[in-house]
Amino acid sequence: MQVVEIVIRNNTYKISCESGKGNHLLRLANSFDKLVSSVSQKTGGKGSDALNFLLAALILEDKILELTKRLDEVNQEREKYRNEKRIEYTEVLDKVELISNLIHQFSDGIYYFLSFSLIISVIVFVHEYGHYVVAKACKVKVESFSIGFGPEIFGFNDKSGTRWKLSVVPLGGYVKMLGDTNAASVPADQQELTEEEKLYSFHTKPRHKKAAVVFAGPFANMVFAVIAFTIFFSIAGYYRTPPVIENVIEGSAAKQAGLLPGDTITQINEHKIKYFEDISRVIMSNPKTRMEIEYSRNNEKHRTSLTPLIIKDKDVFGNTIERETIGIISVNTLKQSSFLGAVSLSVSETYHTMCLTIKALFHIIVGKRSINEIGGPIKIAKYSGQSAKKGFIMVLYFMAIISANLAAINLLPIPLLDGGHLFHYIIEAVIRRDLSLKCKKYAAIFGALVLFLLMATGMSNDIRDLF
């Protein structure tokens, strides 16, 4: 503390204050003395010093209130300015975030598109090359071999006159043979061909050769799927887990049905269970179905029934999916990597993938599955990109699944598909004559309509999933 002497109206006052604040107090006293002198002059020197002090204090109070009000206004204006700037800053951040998200989505879209184009091109090439090899073996002239549809990007002619080309739209491909009017292998009028051309026309060949050429495409996809699965299982390994329950999840369908740890599942409905992996396969291929389960406990056979519950889960790419489960956990087993075992498992996996594809389509038709499960090129592109990000081994696995799916779908008896052509040949073999050109063209129109509806449904579902 320190003592400061201040002078107001020639009177000296001693005031105690904190150390370091004496100069501030002197300046304040000097200002107050001037204010008192001003008040005294305005009153003509009349009035006591106490009155002058009071008037000065009142004036000072008014100025302080005015200054406080002004400060409040300044603070309000400053706060308003800050809020406006904060809003502007937030809007800028939102725009930057929106642009960043758009750039990220665009780059992801490009990546997915390129991954999709590459994966689909390989699978389509395998499919069409199957047609091509058998066609050449049956002495059919192949006019063009295209990966993709639409205008040609680039291509070349080989020694036999076949035009090999890459086209703009990477949604499939085709092999156009002599005698076809278009890429869908709709036959032209064979009477317009010369005698030499008829020798190499696809449509003048015996039915068994035409069937061989047609079936070669899906068969090539089956072989490719087996090879891809074999490489995948040989590198990544695989499990052959006995169907023994290690644990039963609380509140699950299995718990409610009375299944216990140590029970061995031997049969579900009419399906024999050899490995634990067979259980999920049976559940996936029979949605919304009550399961009759046969199991062994202490060497005694028992039966129970349950309905799988739907849960949310993640697939191998991290996407949220809904799947049915009965709520049991398998025993721990060592991962295997035998090549022969991988081959055997790959054949089984290809077969079951094809069966699951056909069953899924049938279940959608009869209403056991939602039509929203149909995916289009956007969904395939998304999974293509996600598999590519996980490395070559996951790309191989994804290609195996798509190749098996393509083989199964192409064998459906829908005109324009390979299965539709095979169905035509079966009908012709039964009636012992060729179907008329008019009938084949009407069938092609019907097939195109069905395929268009499937594609439109898949695209619609893809677009809805994006938003």
TrEMBL record:
Transmembrane portions of the chain: 109-126, 211-239, 392-412, 442-460
Does the keyword Amino-acid biosynthesis belong to this entry?
Answer: no
What are the names of the required cofactors? Answer: Zn(2+)
Q: Which CDD domains match?
A: cpPDZ_EcRseP-like (cd23081), S2P-M50_PDZ_RseP-like (cd06163)
Q: Which GO biological process entries does UniProt record here?
A: proteolysis
GO molecular function: any one? metalloendopeptidase activity
Main subcellular localisation? membrane
Compartments (UniProt record): Membrane
The entry's keywords = Coiled coil, Hydrolase, Membrane, Metalloprotease, Protease, Transmembrane, Transmembrane helix, Zinc
Q: Which GO terms describe its cellular component?
A: membrane
Look up and give the membrane topology term: Multi-pass membrane protein
- Outline the extent of the PDZ domain: 229-297
InterPro entries, per the entry = Cell_div_ZapA-like, Cell_div_ZapA-like_sf, PDZ, PDZ_6, PDZ_sf, Pept_M50_Zn, Peptidase_M50
**Keyword Aminoacyl-tRNA synthetase applies:** no
In terms of Pfam families, this protein maps to: PDZ_6, Peptidase_M50, ZapA
Coiled-coil blocks: 57-91
Q: Which PANTHER family match?
A: MEMBRANE METALLOPROTEASE ARASP2, CHLOROPLASTIC-RELATED, REGULATOR OF SIGMA-E PROTEASE RSEP
Q: Which family does it belong to?
A: Belongs to the peptidase M50A family.
Q: What is this protein called?
A: Putative zinc metalloprotease mll0638
User: What's the gene?
Assistant: mll0638
